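Entry:
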Amino acid sequence: MVMTQNPTILMHLANIASALLGLYSFIIWIRIILTWIRIPGQMTENPFVRFLSKIVDPYLNWFSGIKGLKKQHIDLTPLVAIAVLSIFQSIFSLYGAYGKITIGMVLSLIVRTFWSFILSPAFWFILIILCIRLFFCYKRGPNSIFYIKMLDSMDGSLIDFVQRLFFGKNAVDDRSLVWASIIFYGVLYLLGKYLMAFLASALLKL
């Protein structure tokens, strides 16, 4: 009798843990969104934001020392922190639903989460920046140079990589180079999407 009840109790506890992690992830998202909002004339931090920071910042600080998560105005720390929570939430959720968890399930979850929270958003960010960059290639204005320089600070190395890969030292006009970059990173995104899906499915069978 005890043997049949214990798995059920653990499954309920796993579902509770999954729900708590989901709630905590939601609180982190609220914290992130509120940091983007600035009320005109407000000199001090919102008390509600200060309260949320006491809850989520200690966890986020665990990832602040990882090199490569911060670059200029881009901070991937919260994204990686939420991805880690998502992995554990999915593990608890799976155990709560099926009463078991395998190494294959865990590895598959890690692959899917890595793609969904890190690689896929990174590709979309690159493609959006490149599309904006292409817009200024066709629409020139008094402030175009300023915006192009600002965008190049974010995607300049990516465009340079495409230049070296496909054109070498040959001269190529700006529009063609940006178009080539959009196509290249778009194809990489599609290949990565299907490769990660295949890998996750293969790991699930372990």
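Residues 1-5 have pLDDT under 50 and may be disordered.
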